[in-house]
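Case study.
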Amino acid sequence: MPEARVTCWDGWGFICMDHEAAPLQDYLGDFSEHWSRWPSAGRTTNLHIVKHLKCNWKVSLDAFIESFHVIATHPQLLVSLDDVNTQYDTYEGQPSFNRMISAQAVSSPHLGKPVSEQEIIDSLLSEGRGRPELSAEQTARDVLASVVKRYYSLAAGEEIDCTISEAIDAIQYYVFPNFVPWAGLVADRLPVPSLRQRSGSLDHGHLAAAAA
Ligand SMILES: [Fe+2]
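After joint prediction, the assembly is written out as follows.
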């Protein structure tokens, strides 16, 4: 009977059919250290979506690990997502993973025109969800991060401590060949157990309260 090597890492199951391959921990290298800031322990699944696509799996995966497609597929995001300056990080001696960061609440150079900080925040928060009026000194990034952090802190019943980038940017790791975890809060990763338990009752009213 065929045998596979199965390893559990941070709550995820990894299956390897190659008995000659290096142990998973060696393969992951420094990724474990990177990910230690956002451990999966104690989390639950809020939503699980499965979509069957009639294509080679590598084609579908490729569409989720770059931001070149944003201008064609999600042009409505260009007001508030800096696709052009997306940062792709690779690490010397670490061939198994890389990291992509797309800044949110910054407009895309593809628009070819200046966009005000207020226009950016308006595109991200609809009026019904508590849209703040920015002062001349405020940036959309600072205000959005503040709203998001307060939103999650309200849900958690305790102060969420994270960077602006962790609060609002798209921070995505890619572990070859098919593991793509998102870091930070923007992907609705819930960092503390109490937040998980209360998040089911979150609604737009909570976001309005966070923005107030
Ligand atoms: Fe996309």
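Observations recorded in class. Residues 187-205 have pLDDT under 50 and may be disordered. The first strand starts at residue 5 and ends at 9. We will return to this complex in the next lecture.
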